[in-house]
């Protein structure tokens, strides 16, 4: 039970349950709380691509807006209700992501980002000019939130703001749990390896392009779900959701929250929506203030709001840095001593074996295996040492034979120890 309560998703769930009751105290509405949780889902989905795969996309606004348009058009012209429009919106985001991802995955780095930017601008142009279908600059109205029947719960009036908030909460919790499972699975670990060093991951044997493509489609699927839920929230779709500016806002709120933390984009999304609603009541140029705040975070705390929280926790002693946890005392394994260990040398000395000097006399230093061949001090014939000249020239001693040849001749009668010309023996 204690382990379950310590799960990082528990604080998020508790905050989302309290949000519609606390936010009205600040003169905000439940609709704003619903928008916050939709942007929480959007940030988590986008961070699968940015924070865990290392791909910067300037085109996620296109998947958000296309999913909203697709689901809304199906509800207006084909099927009433919310179930089928949600499925169509999610499918549209995933299919568009697969089509664009197949083309842009051939590039990396800044070229990948520029291609997503180009596709987003192209889709915005289509949506803006296709007035007969999308409504053009006037947007698409007529979206409804009818009542739905849920087993064991009966009919739910989604027109009620509080009911729709909890309806969206189910999708947000399910999406957050799925994202957590993805990033902590072998698939997610592979994505992080690609983020750190794609070339090494490919050398290990991973198909990095396929993994990046899968991450891109998953991220677009989460974004599509957020898009259709947002369309049902405001009961309207406007072309600005497809614009490049909105894609930049998604990127900014993810970075402000902390893209290297799982819950960082969720916090960034909540901060962005509340900050926008608060500042827009005073000025129309609220993006100028948010842009300045974004630059401050980039310079002061690249890890975002979560990075600041970690610094405060470290200063207060509430947490430790990685690797600072107290380690248990190291225990020696009960295994026989190796040939070079202190235990083996002690055993040889007590037994009076070679290299110990026997029970009578001090022990003698044994040759080390990693050194070149040494003088054979146990050879019966010992020749007096000849001083080695440190200089190379006419007065230098001639080179001896190779160590192997010298070792073979050392055992012959009349030959003393052989000393390599580059080693000085006292």
Description of the molecule:
- The protein is an all-alpha fold.
- The protein has a domain at 8-244.
- The protein has 17 helices and 2 strands.
- It has helices spanning 2-5, 9-22, 30-50, 60-77, 83-104, 110-129, 131-134, 161-183, 186-196, 198-204, 208-234, 244-257, 264-280, 286-300, 304-316, 342-351, 403-410; strands at 148-150, 154-156.
- Strands 1-2 form a two-stranded antiparallel sheet.
- It is globular, with a radius of gyration of 35 Å.
- The two termini are 70 Å apart.
- Mean pLDDT is 79; it is low at 323-337, 353-359, 366-375, 400-412, 414-419 and 422-426.
Report the portion of residues in β strands.
under 5%
Biggest beta sheet summary: 2 strands, antiparallel
Helical residue percent?
55-70%
Distance N terminus to C terminus?
A: 70 Å
Helix tally equals 17
Q: Report the strand count.
A: 2
Q: Per the principal axes of the C-alpha atoms, what is the gross shape?
A: globular
Q: Please tell me how large the radius of gyration is.
A: 35 Å
Q: Please, what is the average pLDDT?
A: 79
Q: Can you list the strand order of the major beta sheet?
A: 1-2
The helix/strand order is HHHHHHHEEHHHHHHHHHH
Question: What secondary-structure arrangement, pairings included, does this model have?
Answer:
Layout: H1 2-5, H2 9-22, H3 30-50, H4 60-77, H5 83-104, H6 110-129, H7 131-134, E1 148-150, E2 154-156, H8 161-183, H9 186-196, H10 198-204, H11 208-234, H12 244-257, H13 264-280, H14 286-300, H15 304-316, H16 342-351, H17 403-410
Antiparallel strand pairs: 1-2
Helix pairs in contact: 2-3, 2-8, 3-8, 3-11, 3-12, 3-13, 4-5, 4-11, 5-11, 9-10, 9-11, 12-13
């Amino acid at each position: 039970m204690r382990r379950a309560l310590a799960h990082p998703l528990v604080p998020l769930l508790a905050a989302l349950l309290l949000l519609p009751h606390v936010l009205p105290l600040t003169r905000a509405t439940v609709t704003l709380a619903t928008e916050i949780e939709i942007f929480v889902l959007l940030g988590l989905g986008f961070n699968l691509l940015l924070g865990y795969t290392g791909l910067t996309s300037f085109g996620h606004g296109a998947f958000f807006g296309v999913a909203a348009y697709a689901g809304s058009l199906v509800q207006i012209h084909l099927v009433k209700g919310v179930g089928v429009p949600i499925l169509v919106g999610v499918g549209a985001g995933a299919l568009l992501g697969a089509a664009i991802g197949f083309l842009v995955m051939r590039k990396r780095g800044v070229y990948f980002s520029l291609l997503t930017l180009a596709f987003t601008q192209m889709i915005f142009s289509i949506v803006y000019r296709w007035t007969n279908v999308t409504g053009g600059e006037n947007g698409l109205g007529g979206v409804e939130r009818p009542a739905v029947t849920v087993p064991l719960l009966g009919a739910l009036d989604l027109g009620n703001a509080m009911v729709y908030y909890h309806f969206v909460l189910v999708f947000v919790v399910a999406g957050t749990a799925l994202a957590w499972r993805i990033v902590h699975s072998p698939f997610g670990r592979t994505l992080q390896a690609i983020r750190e060093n794609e070339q090494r991951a490919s050398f290990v044997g991973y198909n990095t392009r396929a993994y990046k493509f899968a991450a891109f489609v998953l991220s677009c699927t989460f974004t599509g779900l957020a898009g259709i839920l947002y369309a049902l929230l405001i009961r309207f779709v406007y072309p600005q959701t497809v614009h490049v500016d909105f894609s930049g806002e998604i990127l900014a709120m993810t970075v402000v929250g902390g893209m290297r933390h799982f819950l960082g984009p969720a916090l960034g999304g909540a901060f962005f929506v509340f900050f926008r609603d608060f500042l827009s009541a005073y000025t129309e140029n609220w993006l100028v203030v948010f842009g300045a705040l974004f630059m401050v975070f980039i310079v002061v705390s690249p890890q975002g709001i979560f990075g600041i929280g970690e610094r405060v926790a470290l200063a207060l002693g509430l947490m430790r840095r990685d690797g600072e946890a107290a380690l248990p005392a190291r225990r020696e394994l009960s295994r026989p001593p190796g040939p070079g260990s202190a235990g083996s040398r002690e055993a040889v000395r007590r037994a009076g074996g070679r290299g110990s000097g026997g029970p009578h006399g001090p022990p003698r230093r044994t040759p080390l295996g990693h050194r070149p061949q040494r003088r054979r001090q146990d050879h019966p014939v010992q020749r007096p040492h000849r001083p080695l000249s440190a200089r190379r020239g006419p007065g230098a001693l001639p080179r001896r034979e190779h160590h192997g040849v010298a070792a073979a001749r050392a055992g012959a009668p009349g030959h003393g120890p052989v000393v390599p010309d580059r080693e000085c023996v006292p």
